[in-house]
Structure formats: structure tokens, C-alpha cells
Amino acid sequence: MVVRLAVNVVRFIVTFFVATVAVFALMRAIPGDPAQISLGVNASPELLAQTRREFGTDRPLIAQYFDWVSGLPQGHFGVSFVTRRDISDMIADRVQVSLILVILSMIVALLIAVPFGTLAAVRHRRTSGILISGISQLGVAIPGFLAGIMLVVVFAVGLGWLPANGWTPPGQDFGDFASRIVLPVVALASVQGAILTRYVRSAVLEVMSEDYLRTARAKGLGKLEALVRHGLRNASIPVLTVTSIQLAALIIGAVVVERVFVIPGLGSMLLDAVGNRDMLSVQSVVMVLVAITLIINLIVDTLYTVLDPRIRKQA
Amino acid sequence: MRRTKHYRLAAAVLLAAAMSLTACSAGSSGGSEAKSAGKTSLTVALTGPPTNLDFTRTAGAAIPQALMSNVYEGLVKIDQDGRIQPSLAESWTLSDDRKTYTFKLHPGVTFSNGEAFTADDVKFSLERVKTGWVSSLKTKMDVVDSIDVLSDSEVEVKLSRPSNAWLFDMGTPVGAMFDPSGVQDLANKPVGTGPFTVESWKPGEAIAMTARDKYWGQAPKVKTLTLRYFADATATTNALRSGDVDVVYNMQAPELLPTFESDKSFQILDGTSNGKVELTMNNKVAPFNDVRVRRAVMYAIDRKAVLDTAWSGHGTLVGAPVPPTDPYYEDLNGVYPHDPGKAKALLKEAGAENLKITFTVPTRPYATAVSQIVVSELADVGIDATIETAEFPAVWLDKVFTKHDYQMSVILAVESRDLLTAFNNPNYYIGYDNSKIKDLAQTADAADEAGYVEGMKKVVRTITDDAAVDVLFLFPNLIVAKADVTGLPKNSVTEALDLTAAGWK
Amino acid sequence: MSEPTAAESVPQFSLPGLEPGPEPAAVVARRGRRKVSATLIVGAAVVVLVVLAALVSFFWTPYDPVKAFPVDRLQGSSAAHLMGTDRYGRDVFSGILYGARITLMVGLISVGIALVIGTPLGILAGMRGGFTEEATMRGADILLAFPALLVAIMFGAVFGASTTTAMVAIGIGSIPGFARVARSGTLQVMSTEYVLAARASSQNSFRIARRHVLPNIAGMVVVQCSVTFALAVLAEAALSFLGLGTPPPVPSWGRMLQESQQFLGTFPMLAVWPGAAIAVAVLGFNLLGDGLRDKFDPKLNGER
């Protein structure tokens, strides 16, 4: 167990630093001079040179890389030369927004997917099961931003029940926060819920075919009862895997929904920073994303050992 | 075994809890401010957020749009008709040789940090343009020779040569007045003499301003002013409909207007701006180094159709790179009427039939809309234009503006009175050969008012005759607002969005 | 006791590809045998329809899909314009036909990239184990932290937004899925008796991969292709929405949808056509994937 955790932590560190090199290299390949963008049209060569010096973009790449990387372990990303703000502070703000949105959405998605997916599996030959499968197929097929735009058109602009967009931190005004987060969460959760429903269904179907479950049923337990008492834990492993992958992908993937609902999340920050060629911010946001993804992997990997005794024995 | 399992579970739960806890103190986008504050506040929706708040070191119209007039003021200001009006200077005199301005300052003016505004601050601010500004705008102060403080309330500015443009520029950001003790962190904490101060700024989201108690002039109508920034026009009008914002300023999607036109609870202001949507042709490279090919393009494009299709007919056809609010404006729409036959003939004459060109289009809504119709019209006269998109601003600035690596492009030029910047400089990306206008322009700037206007008109006619650029239309300043909002500036004459008179009925 | 005791050599937690697992054999078997799956038929039919639309667009579209006719702009459906016209007066039906071509191209190229890179890596990881496996799977982990959207945003900045950039980005983002499917399939095959026998008789690895592994995982990989195809179509639409997809004037469904956003209040049908086209195509490829999964999975006999 401890060994496994240690291995994972080493993996984490190595992967993280490989990623820093990749991200840094990619960022330097981007055309567009930050100094030029900051100065705009009609800048003289002297002004450009002066600004590059100020930004540090005239220094050797190796030096720029080490300046940046050496700050990472302490979570110090430096000051953006575009916004002239501390990048760590900005990311801290944005990451909270993204995490609230994404985690809430995944919870709602699971609340939809687990019961409906299980039902679809248990009744996979009946109308209700087929209906759920059909709806989930449709849900997966609709582009997320279209779902978001339609929600705005119907519930905000048309019916006027909810605000069309915007964000209020829950700590500031919880009621307002709640009214604003409903539509984006519904937009994200409906698509994610549809995806997860399909996974839950197939995972439960898989479990239902296992010998131990058939034994349990032979002992006189009902289908659902046997499943709940013996099967769900096993079915949860693939579902957990997919949830974790989706969770990580959604932190950036939510950018589309962030744009529709004007939510100041990490994805929007990334898009803006790329547009302004705010290299330091882009690098830092990407590394935060990498870190979050790796941490989620780490947590999930640990959860596996909790959920599956076979893995525990292995370690 | 069991025990370790529980530990692990507990750890996982704790982690999840910690995540949601930290999540609870997240940042705001100021979404709720409009609703709770009632009628003493105004929330304005804009697109294109500033990257920071320091226009002395960062280019772009977004920062002066938010801060000029509201937070910063100059000695003079430009009114809705493009005329120069007194502001921090009560009055001024001009010497007979037209080179020395003497400004009498308004008494009792203070900066938002409490410091008094005096002639020393004028000297400091104007000199700082030359020494402290990191911006291409600073060249506008090159003509200033010396600044002398005559008394606390009088200051004298000597120019190296007479200049009509300079006093106008004093009403734009380059003439903004700063306090020597207030310029440490302009990017985050602006200090000016205006009626508002910046309360908070969230990059990419919102700027919140509050009215000052001790403002020297007419107090603004509202106590708090919030500028909120959106990624696209649809989001702004959605926010207007659901009551989160009161005004959508400089709306970027006229297609959205029809749904507001019939609605009594909204008003639409269709004003003019300085923004010229220019179809630029690289005057220095083939095929557009041939004036006949450029003229052919002018005849090929049906500007009325472009305006109607791309911008739903909102905007003004001007025919030259001069808006009607400039003193030397004249209607030059008749110079190149839509005439595909003539265009084809010119192309034949130039030996440029079956032309293939690359059309570099910046990633902006107006550019995308305009380019598709332009390509179609060029095809009608035998010019095959291939669209190549260039991310704006980064790639467009690098490729088109700096490296001049383009044949045709389209851009919204927003700077006020930029005629000479763009055309009196052969090294500008348009590459216009300025030999014919160079002397005309210099004489005009040094002449008296009437001579200035006459001279500049000649410059404009020469540029138009040489088909240096095809000005497709003048960008409208579209405003959609709640019906009971008053005092909004209909026209956008300079970069500033002056909200000092905005309020409620 | 209630807990399962079967200890397999293949750890169950190996991440699957991003697709729901197969219908287990036992479940399917109970439904009766040898009936051609309706899912497969519907899926295949829709895919054929998209391919046909794309092919037709090479020879014929009612109008030039990029030619603007300002006079005819924003018309509803009529005999002249089956799906009406857009803000530039372009025929929407012609755009939808042409857009099928872009959709197919995006799907094929991005799936191709992921297939060609991801599958061999997965097989290699599955067969070699040890450091190779570790390195490959860590690489896949890094890639997981770079979803297609993130790669596309960064590539869009480096190379400019274009269909090619979008395809490559989606392709790269899909590599981990293929690598994982190939690896887990390979691990299963490697533990079978005939492979153990082949290894015992010291056949070389390449031969084992070709003779035993590849044929056995082909079905799973085909399924992954189909599912990834559907994801690619959605990803292109999302990228177009953000301005990182196919540039104008070439009509892609994603961009048509994005351009129609401002007309939702006035001309909603402009959004309905490309939206429906995307949804139908995605549905088609997903159904095809499900159908193929039932047919190909080694545990199954291919029926539903």
C-alpha cells in the first residue's frame, strides 16, 4: 500500500516535469511577440526592445524556463506582464469557479446516471430500459454549447425564470449563486449524465452476468436486491474511472459552457491568455490543469484499492 | 486491513470536503450588483476587456474606453460633435505665431488620492508622456517643445511648430492628467481627477467604479458604475434581457437588434463612431502596387450591399477614411460607384485578369462578416480571393501590421484622426506612397483653422483618387439600453466612453 | 462470502478506452441468437447517408455553397432553397451537403492519427511490460491532462485556426483512448494459452503481435474508431464555436451552427439544420459503434 502510494507520487513528479518542458516548448513556438501586442500598432523598435527587456522575453530560453520552473513547487507562477497581476492569485480565483462548476455538474450527472443506468441495465429488454438507452444516445449526440444556448433561449430569455449568464460566488450571495449556476450545471450535467448513463448501464450489465451474482439470485434474492447487495461495488470501478477522466477533461472542456454563460473559469482564462500571448499565464494554467489531472488519477488509483480487494492484495 | 481501508476512505472524503470548502470563497464577476443596488447604479455591458488599467504602457482602445472621462480627464475634452471643449482648463489663449498655448486651470480640482491638481501636475503629466510612457501614442507629444509653470493655475506650452492636431490630442488619452504620487501602480490603481474612482477590477470580467465625493465639476447621476465584459454580443443582449445589465454599448451583432426594436422597454441608439472598416490593399506588392488594380477593387465592391449584408445596414457609407465628425470630412461616396464592368476593364488594362490573391482576415465578427461578401463580389469581376484567417490581435499584428506580409486585409481602424498616421508614412503597413500628400499635410497642420480644413480635404481627395484603401463603411456605435436610461453618449468620437451624464429618468 | 474471489492476471482496473464496455456475453446470449442488430443497421444507414451527402457534394450542390447572394438573404424553406438561406444569401442545403465532407474528413483524419499512433503504443506496452509499459502509460497520462480542446487552443495559437489544426488536435487528444484499448486487449490476449505457447516456443514478438494480438484486438479497435469518430464530430463543432475550427467561408456544420447563434431569436431554423446534422451524424457513429461492439467482442456471438 505504502509502496504503491510512493510509486504514484514519484510518477506524479516525473510526469509533471516532463509536462513542464512540453508546455514551455510549445508556448515558445507560438507566433506573436508579447511586447508588440502590448504596445500595439506604431511601436518604435526602441520601445519594443525596452518592453521585451521588461517582460524578460529577450533572455535565453533556458534561463526563462528555469526562472519559471523553479517557482512552481512553491506555487509561485510570477507576475503576468500583461495584466500585471500575480498569476497565482488569478488562478486561485478561477480554479475555484471551475471546480465548483465541474464538481457540481459531475455530481448531478452521477445522480442522473447511476439510477437510470442501473434501471436501463436491469430492464434492458423492456421498454423503459430501451427508452433510457435511446435518450442517453440522443444526449450524447447534442453539442454541449447548443444545449447551453437553447437553455438560455428558453429559460432565461423566453420564460425569464433564471438569469441568462454571469457568476456570483456562493460566499457573497448564495441565492444569486444558486440561480445563476442552475443552467450551466444543467447544460454540462445533461451531456455528462448521458455519457455516464451508458457506462453505468454496461458496467451493471457486466456485473449481472458474473457468477457470484447469479449465485446470489439462485439463493432467492431479487434481481435488484442481489445487485445492490453484491454487484454495485464492482460495477462502480469502471464508472469511477470514466468519471475521473471526464472530470479532468471537463475542467477545460467546460470552457464552451463558460463562454455561453459568461462564467469566469479556468478555461476562459486560458483562452484569453492565449489571445494576449500572456505566456506565463498560459503555461501556469496548463500546469495547474496537468497537476489537477494527475491528482485526480492519484485519488482514483487509491480509491481502486479501497473498492477492489484484489488490487489491495497485489500491492 | 479493515482499518487502513477506513483511513483511506476518510482521507478521500476529507479531500473532497476541502475542495468544496475552498471552492466556497471563489471570486466574483459582479453579476449581482446591478439588481441589488437599485437606481443609483448603472451596469454597462461591453465586449473586449482591457488587459490591465494602464494605457500609458499598454495599447488598445479598451483601457481608455473605460477610464478616460470617467476616471481621467485632460485639459480639454472632445464633445459629441468632435469639437474641443474646456475641461480641466477653464480657458486658453494661443499666441499669434500659433505656437504657444497658455492654459488657465480650473480652481479647486483634486485627484482621487486627495492631492490638489495644479500647473505642476500638467508639466509632470505632459513630460511623462515623453519619458514614462511605453506606447506608440507618445509621438503625439513630439511637437511639444517646453512646458512652463507660470503660477499654480497657469501653464504655458510651447510647440516647435504650429499644430492643429495637438490641441485635439490633448482631449484624448495622451492628454490625461496624472498626479506624481499616484502613478506607482497604474495597471491596478488608477488615480485621476475624474468623477469616478476604480473600486475593483477583475481581469476579463468587470470594472466597478464609485462616484467621488469631492468632484470639482457636475456630479455624476449614479453612485456606482459597473462595466462588465462579455465574450460575444449574444451574451450581452441576453444579460440585458434578463436584467443583469442596463446598457449594451457598442454592440457587435446588429442582427440581434430586431428583437429589441419592437419592444417598448428598450431603446436603441444608432450613433456614429471613428471606426473605419477598411479593406486594405498592400500598395507596395503585386498586384495592388498598380493603382488600376486598386481602383478596380473600388469599383468591384458594392459598399451598400456589404453594409446591408454584413452589418444589417447599420453604419455610414463615407467613401474615404474620414468620419463626418472630423472637420475636414466631405462625402466622397460618388468617386467609385459600384461598376463591375469598369472594374473588369481596369483589370484588363492592367493585365491582371484571373487574379488570384490571398485575403488575410482577422478573427473578429465584423471582419468575418465583411470578408465573405467581399470575396463573393471580387469573384464577380474575376478576382479569386482565398481567405486566410489571422488570429487577432496576435497573429494579425505580427504578420500584416509588422511584417507587411499580406496582399489584402480588412480591419476596423478605431483611432481618431489617424489619417496622416496611416497615409503620410510609406513604411506603414498599407505602404501608400505619400510623395503627393507630404507637403500638403505639413502646410495644413501649420495653417489657421480654415486653411487646415481646406488642406486636409485636398489630402483626403488625393488619397481617394489613388485608391489607397477601400473604406467599406463607418462602424456604427450601436447602443441598446433599458428605456429609462438617459444621458448615454450616442456617438463615439474619441476612445472614451463618457458615462458621467448617464443616469435614470 | 459475497466478495468475488476470481484473481485474474489482468488487473480489472486497467483503464478502458473512452467507451462503454461491451454487452456481456451471458446477457446477450439470453436474448436469442443470430438476429442482425437493429442498432447496427440504423447506425450504418446514418453513416452511409453522411458519406453519400459528402460524395454528392463533390459532383453537385444546388448552389455554390460559398457564393453570397445578398438579395436572397435570410429566406425560409422554399422550393428554390430547401433549407432556406443564411445571412449572406447562401443556400443552407448546399452548405449541409458540403459540410458532410468536412465532417467526414475531420473524423477520418483525427481517428487515423489516434489509431496509427495509439494502437501500436498500446500493443507495445501490453506486450513488453516493464519500463516500456510504464513510459507509454505515463505518456498517456500526460496526454489525458491535455484534452483535445486544450491541445486545439494551443495549436490554434501556434499554427493558426484551421481544419487541419483542429483535426490534428482532436487526433492527439484521442491517442490515450486507443492506447488504453489496445493495451488492455493485448494484456488479455497475452495471458491466453496459445500466446503463452507461442512465447514458450520463442517466436519473436513482432510475429506474435501480428499473428495473435492484432487479429484479436481488431474488433475492439474498430469500435474505438467509431466512437472516437463521433467524439471528433462533436469536438469540431465545439472548436468552431470558439473560433478554433474550420475558417470561413468553407461551410462546416460547427461553424454554420456558430454563425446562426445570433439569429436564434429571429431565424431559429438556421441553427436547427446544422444542429440536427451534427446530432444525427454523432448518433449514427455511436450506434454503429455499439452495433459493431456486439458483433466484434470476442466474448460475443454477435447478436442483440
From TrEMBL, chain A:
The chain crosses the membrane at residues 12-30, 99-122, 134-161, 181-200, 239-262, 282-307. CDD domains: TM_PBP2. GO terms for biological process: transmembrane transport. It is found in: Cell membrane. It is a multi-pass membrane protein. Keywords: Cell membrane, Membrane, Transmembrane, Transmembrane helix, Transport. GO terms for cellular component: plasma membrane. Residues 95-300 form the ABC transmembrane type-1 domain. InterPro entries: BPD_transp_1_N, MetI-like, MetI-like_sf. Belongs to the binding-protein-dependent transport system permease family. This is ABC transporter permease.
From TrEMBL, chain B:
PROSITE patterns: PROKAR_LIPOPROTEIN. Keywords: Signal. Residues 1-25 form the signal peptide. One of its GO terms (molecular function) is peptide transmembrane transporter activity. One of its GO terms (biological process) is peptide transport. Pfam families: SBP_bac_5 (PF00496). Residues 84-411 form the Solute-binding protein family domain. One of its GO terms (cellular component) is ATP-binding cassette (ABC) transporter complex. CDD domains: PBP2_NikA_DppA_OppA_like_6. PANTHER family: D,D-DIPEPTIDE-BINDING PERIPLASMIC PROTEIN DDPA-RELATED, PERIPLASMIC BINDING COMPONENT OF ABC TRANSPORTER. This is ABC transporter substrate-binding protein. It comes from Arthrobacter terrae.
Automatic annotation (TrEMBL), chain C:
It is found in: Cell membrane. InterPro entries: BP-dependent_transpt_permease, MetI-like, MetI-like_sf. GO terms for cellular component: plasma membrane. Residues 100-289 form the ABC transmembrane type-1 domain. Its main location: membrane. The chain crosses the membrane at residues 40-60, 102-127, 139-159, 165-182, 217-243, 263-289. It comes from the Bacteria. The keyword Transmembrane helix applies. GO terms for biological process: transmembrane transport. Pfam families: BPD_transp_1. It is a multi-pass membrane protein. Keywords: Cell membrane, Membrane, Transmembrane, Transmembrane helix, Transport. Belongs to the binding-protein-dependent transport system permease family. This is ABC transporter permease. It comes from Arthrobacter terrae.
